[in-house]
Hints:
The chain is an alpha/beta fold. It is built from 10 helices and 16 strands.
Amino acid sequence: MKTIEWKKGKVRMVDQTKLPAKLEFIYVKSLAQMVSAIKIMQIRGAPALGSAAAFGMVLGVSNLDVAAKKLLDSRPTAVNIKWAVERMLKIARAGKGMATPELKKLLLKEALKIAEEDVEINKSIGRNGAKVVKKGMSILTVCNAGALATVDYGTALGVIRAAHGQGKRIHVFAAETRPRLQGAKLTAWELKQEKIPFTLITDNMIGHLMQKGEIDLVVTGADRIARNGDSANKIGTYAAAVLAKEHGIPFYIAAPISTIDFNIQTGRQIVIEERPEAEVTSIGKERICPKGIKVRNPAFDVTPAKYIAGIITEMGVFRPDRIKILKA
């Protein structure tokens, strides 16, 4: 099942805000709908957002400059949006002078190519990452970097799927990932669908389980990776990486090369998205704290390269200080 695909002139996407209660699809027919779906996280995850941005450019073909700006402003941390928009603009420049219907066909061909490539890239990430997984390991993952965060298959969960498929008898600890609970809602749903043994834990249990020797490996996704290997991922990832370092547990990032932003030197240059206070003050429709209080809601944090054992890509597993060679 694909998270996002082109169907009869529309973009069909899994509405991730409805999971795990029900599997429901939305059909996006306009640029405005796509931008809204990205902002309210009906679609999310760096590679999936790249594909969504590509299809958004197809829908916004009548004014690509406006489409590009709206998509780039929708979620600032995920570099795959920028990567996809720039790739689509390059195609548009090659088709300069075409009538709009013909240009739309050209852009759609590229968007479909981006989606197809994503699936194969993720499978390669899975195969490469499975090499660092030993039989019987217990693996912690943070947030959701599975099929739902990509067009299909997943990055961090792609590694887990590949290792499971090789009969390595792994067990997964899925951190719930406050405040939006992507680990509890999405990762747990995916692992259950794949029949991969797992246990759901709250974010503040990670240190305890590491101290007890119950976690052997950490694999997470990323939304933007700096040239030096510093990696931005869902809030809470940095804390997990520090704890892993303290306990001698290898910590890996799994992400496509398109998530590496070679234009920035370090993670200090990564813009961190601040999301609405309501995500923190409420769970669902129930408020969980007093009214009139100060709230912070950064969606991501940055894990410095020194805490990362390796970055798993479609081209192999690289030390953070070696990823700059991938620019070529």
